[in-house]
Amino acid sequence: MTRADAPGGGPSGELPPAFQRARDALRAVLDGPSPRPELDLEDMPAPQRLAPYAAALSGSVYRDDDTEVASGRLIVLYDPAGRDGWENGFRVVAYVRADLEPEFAADELIGSVAWSWLLEALEPAGFTAVSGTITRAVSESFGDKSDEPSATELELRASWSPTDSGSGIDMAGHVAAWCEVMGATAGLPPTGVTALPDGPGGAGR
After folding, report:
1. I need a surface site. Which of 35, 69, 105, 128 has the fewest CB within 10 A?
2. Residue with more model confidence, 67 or 195
3. What's the 3-state SS for 42-78?
């Protein structure tokens, strides 16, 4: 989960307490029950050059037929020296990719809606200095593949700094927010809400 480089720091393998707590929170999410049955989370190698300390998760959302309809990555970066715009030395980087049904792909507001899902999901955990982009990509097939239907994907890339509510940083809450956005982009209803049986991909759209 973690690639760490601590030049001038403590003994090899020793982590700053703040990052150790963040890493423990990610491990607890991986070791605990999945936030929702359609979601599969895994440990993944973290980038080594973005910050002295980093940890990362990957996730996928599956339909009942085991078709992957959304995927993502969440990276937690920590620099004990601090950086401009990094609250408490932390920065969280998130990526989400999801297949879009044609009727949703044609909606010009889908980018704004997806961004609002992220902000709403992050609100309980506490965040600041959020930024990002949302892209819709259309893939068309030609030649021997011309009979394959066009496909549209939504990609969300965002970063933000987690804030301390007074009792510490709720890193598990940030993971939950990322999971919620993956589910929403895949057409799943919010956690705890049952989809309508005849809905075109769930109530979360």
Report:
1. 128
2. 67
3. EEECCCCCCCCEEEEEEEEEECCCCCEEEEEEEEEEE
